[in-house]
Iron-containing alcohol dehydrogenase
Amino acid sequence: MYNFEFQNPTKLIFGKGTIARIKDEIPAGTKLMLTFGGGSVKKNGVYEQVIDALKGYDVVEFWGIEPNPKVETLRKAIELGKRENVDFILAVGGGSTLDGTKLIACGIKYDGDAWELVLDNSLVKSGVQFASVMTMPATGSEMNSGAVISNLATKEKFAFYSYYPKFSILDPEVTYSIPEYQVSCGIADTFVHVMEQYLTTTGINSLMDRWAEGLLMNLIDIAPGIAEDHKNYDLMSQYMLSATMGLNGFIAMGVPQDWATHMIGHELTALHGVTHGESLAIVLPATMTVLSEQKKLKILQYGERVWGITEGSESERITKAIEKTEQFFRLLGLKTRLHELNIGEETIAEIERRFNERGVKLGECKNVTGTVARAILECAL
Ligand code: NZQ
Ligand code: ZN
């Protein structure tokens, strides 16, 4: 096991009717900014619950943080936050709203332009406190310090690290209104978060392996029931907690991590607006295929423990494990090939060019360069 440090300060408040608990967590007299996405919370009653819980607080609202939050939008929220002297931000929405809020929180305390913080994380020295009412299980943003911010002008999408939410409220009932496609993308995103932390090499930390495999198996178990009825409280609770546990550091202790699939997926989103979870469903099977020799032992372990693949030669079992993974995404109703989105050589060349220009070396072996990313994308055609 590798050395590691672990500290996750976010308080999780989970269950039915928990939105009312906001007022117990934010001190009276706080100047509060609420941040929202495009309006789903007005249709599903979440907005009303939040406003009811915040009676008596001095509140300013910022609306319009879009999926794959754009720095162009977030700059406006930062201006508002500075002007209004806010000292706490409550994000009410999905991962995009919360990710955007993480940059807003740091941007309010920064004199320069917010994009500088994304390009150079060491410039982040402080931020106002923030918390979330999470309405979309997927990113784990409710219990991690990461965010992914896009730039419309330059068509770039980069990870950014701020602070952890002070608390996050997860009421599975708010997920009933999520469109089916977004639920599928959220399950795929959660699955791939686990894979990024798991599918590296064997024999490092058997506890983390078992935990990760448990999360993957549970997602595979619950996905068909959710497809049938995504208003099933027990299933949506499992899904919601899985998304949080998939990316809050609990399965990352003392293990190497990959993240090449995510970084390639982010390029597809930046260039073509592909929804995050679907971008991963396209890239992961191809990453597994291209890196199958390097990841051989772990893919075999994954195949056997997660999918019960015990028969055939090593290469047959590896092929089967990759097929099972792609089939899982297809059962969710997601596309798994670039041609299905009319993406081809031109985009592959652009991603290769960008990676080479940035000197990118991704993955647990730092060997996923522009050339390897090209091979992965060609395999995903
Ligand atoms: O904007 P509104 O109107 O709220 O609608 C949203 C949006 O259209 C809707 N939605 C959310 N909750 C809903 C709902 N609709 C009905 N009922 C609800 N309860 O769903 C749409 C997608 O929302 P979004 O927030 O974009 O989805 P998600 O949570 O998947 O976030 C995606 C973003 O997170 C980043 C991705 O790159 C992407 O930018 N990620 C963040 C990570 C992190 N912070 O650690 C890690 C991830 O790997 C990921 O990269
Ligand atoms: Zn993700």
Notes: The longest helix spans residues 206-228. The mean pLDDT is 97.
